[in-house]
TrEMBL record:
Bilayer-spanning residue ranges: none
Family: Belongs to the IspD/TarI cytidylyltransferase family. IspD subfamily.
Protein name as annotated: 2-C-methyl-D-erythritol 4-phosphate cytidylyltransferase
InterPro entries the record matches: IspD, IspD/TarI, IspD/TarI_cytidylyltransf_bact, ISPD_synthase_CS, Nucleotide-diphossugar_trans
Site (Positions MEP for the nucleophilic attack) residue list: R155, K211
Keyword Transferase applies: yes
EC number: 2.7.7.60
Pfam families the record matches: IspD
Site (Transition state stabilizer): residue numbering on this chain: R19, K26
Catalytic activity from the UniProt record: 2-C-methyl-D-erythritol 4-phosphate + CTP + H(+) = 4-CDP-2-C-methyl-D-erythritol + diphosphate
Length: 227
């Protein structure tokens, strides 16, 4: 008999948000009455299959956080997103979780149906599954350091990866360790899984699941989070 499935969410929240240029890291900004991190935690806990949330934070952000909440633990983040994710995944493994659902702290607008779809697609498949959206604009490649088009890039079958990304916890830990947490090509969990030979499934995401990156994104997410 196979072991029972146990899913923990891992939320990397140890970044500094350089592109946002705010006084505190973007995940601690308040939108519609709650911090962006809190919205993201609440979003992953909408699904009953997610038993626990491991949030990776940097040491100097600890004072911004509530002391304790049910179903939530704080773990040490790292210098790269991959290092923060690996930290959470290793804690999840220690506590006997079989699967991890990695979700950016900076994506507070995750719809419940997208979360349910990625869990369904990835849970019984070692390839796992990720949320992504088809590229909607025309793509151009420029000359290096020049604002001039060198080529058009066909956008057929091109997707922009979002989170959540769901994988077997032990396979993802192996994948990130093998690829290396400081490898610049390790931009998301799927890239690490591909590195060790897996082909994660794609699940349709949503514009509402945008990653807050630049100041103007706050206007969009304020509208999306309105109920
Ligand atoms: N992250 C993390 N540890 C890091 C870097 C990033 O946990 N060392 C987290 C961020 O907190 C964020 C998610 O990874 O929730 C996605 O990263 P990104 O949007 O790039 O956030 P930042 O790295 O904080 O922003 P920037 O790249 O603009 O500095
Ligand atoms: Mg970053």
């Amino acid at each position: 008999m196979s072991e029972p499935v146990r899913i923990a969410a891992v939320i990397p929240a140890a970044g500094y948000g350089k592109r946002m240029q705010s006084s505190v890291p973007k995940q601690f900004l308040t939108v519609q009455g709650r911090s962006i991190l809190q919205h993201s935690v609440d979003a992953v806990l909408q699904n009953e299959a997610v038993e626990h949330v491991f949030i990776a934070v940097s040491e100097n952000a600890q004072h911004q956080l509530p002391l304790s909440r049910p179903k939530v633990s704080f773990v040490a983040g790292g210098d790269t997103r991959a290092e923060s994710v690996l930290s959470g995944v290793l804690h999840a493994i220690t506590q006997q979780y079989t699967h991890v659902l990695v979700h950016d702290a900076a994506r507070p607008g995750l719809p419940a149906e997208v979360l349910a779809a990625v869990i369904k697609a990835g849970i019984h498949d070692d390839n796992g599954a990720i949320v992504a959206v088809p590229v909607r604009d025309s793509l151009k490649r420029s000359e290096p350091d020049q604002l001039i088009i060198s080529t058009n890039v066909a956008r057929d079958n091109l997707w922009q990866a979002q989170t959540p990304q769901l994988f077997s916890a032990s396979l993802l830990a192996d994948a990130i360790s093998e690829m290396g947490t400081d490898n610049p090509a390790l931009t998301d969990e799927a890239s690490a899984m591909e590195f060790i030979g897996y082909h994660p499934k794609l699940v349709m995401g949503s514009l509402k699941n945008l990653k807050i990156t630049h100041p103007e994104d706050l206007e969009l997410i304020t509208a999306f989070l309105k109920v």
